[in-house]
Recover the amino acids of this structure.
């Protein structure tokens, strides 16, 4: 039921009609399920790295995949559009003219979230939320066990610290890099901006992947802000869980993937960009011969999408613990 709510974005009234349950029962089930996912699964699948080896592995992947050395995270924010809360005045009104709840997140080179901050007012800027974030404070105080400054690849002139990359909404720090502003920049600065943007867009792609698979974020979420926070946290945990176990075989011989290659932009060895096909309204599966075949969207598109996610999660042994928690929660709520 909770996966249906996330994957389709339908209203809770529609979910209640589908499962023949009361709206209050559906609301309580979804709420308790989100709490169970966050409390039980988040410590395993959404935990801030705290060892030198973990940070070094992330930096190596950023350099291998996006050609940006000494990068340990990409940071950015996103507005989750919600229905106007009662008596909220302008606290949740964003610069886009909509009511929203802010999420600030950091991710690694494989679109996996490493830290999130959910629940900021929509009127707050990314830089203001970042200044109050525990992750930013830990970066400032150097309490994350990030390795000491090291030489850049193919250079022994000067040691350079490990950094996170972000856009111009964030302040420039010794641990945070952002692109040069302005136009008609010198070649060195233009190349720097190009390389940094390749790493920074990973967090934007991570938000895009989550919004594509969990289509509740493609429309206004009809819930109180505190419940929206629970939904976003649970969706981020499920995103990490499915992204780390990105494929699962089904009996029909196909391989269903949470994030197939056509869903994000990619680069080949020559630097040529392969654009993603996410904006086309078709579902994609990858066959055993690794050829992407589109499945045209039809009246069963949502059910096929939910079934695809179920196939992805079904084979992972970690899902057994999730199912036990969810079944217990659902049974207790219905009774």
């Amino acid at each position: 039921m909770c996966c249906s709510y996330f994957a389709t974005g339908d209203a809770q009234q529609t979910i209640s009609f589908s499962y023949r349950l009361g709206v209050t029962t559906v609301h309580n089930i979804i709420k308790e399920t989100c709490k169970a996912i966050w409390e039980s699964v988040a410590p395993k699948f959404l935990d801030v790295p705290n060892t030198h080896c973990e940070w070094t592995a992330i930096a190596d992947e950023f350099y291998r995949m996006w050609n940006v050395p000494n990068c340990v995270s990409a940071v950015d924010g996103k507005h989750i559009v919600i229905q106007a809360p009662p008596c909220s005045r302008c606290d949740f009104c964003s610069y886009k003219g909509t009511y929203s709840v802010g999420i600030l997140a950091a991710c690694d080179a494989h679109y996996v979230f490493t830290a999130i901050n959910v629940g900021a007012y929509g009127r707050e800027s990314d830089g203001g939320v970042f200044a109050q974030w525990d992750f930013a404070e830990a970066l400032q105080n150097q309490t994350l066990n990030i390795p000491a400054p090291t030489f850049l690849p193919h250079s022994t002139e000067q040691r350079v610290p490990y950094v996170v990359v972000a856009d111009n909404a964030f302040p420039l720090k010794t641990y945070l890099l952002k692109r040069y502003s302005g136009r008609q920049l010198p070649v060195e600065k233009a190349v720097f901006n190009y390389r940094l943007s390749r790493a920074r867009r990973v967090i934007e792609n991570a938000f895009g992947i989550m919004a594509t698979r969990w289509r509740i974020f493609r429309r206004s979420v009809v819930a109180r802000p505190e419940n929206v926070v629970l939904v976003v946290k649970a969706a981020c945990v499920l995103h990490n869980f499915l992204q780390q176990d990105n494929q699962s075989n089904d009996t029909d011989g196909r391989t269903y993937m949470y994030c197939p290659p056509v869903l994000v932009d990619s680069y080949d060895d020559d630097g040529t960009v392969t654009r993603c096909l996410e904006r086309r309204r078709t579902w994609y599966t990858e066959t055993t011969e690794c050829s992407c075949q589109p499945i045209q969207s039809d009246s069963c598109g949502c059910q096929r999408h939910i079934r695809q996610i179920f196939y992805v999660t079904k084979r992972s042994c970690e899902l057994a613990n999730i199912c036990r928690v969810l079944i217990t929660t659902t049974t207790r709520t219905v009774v």
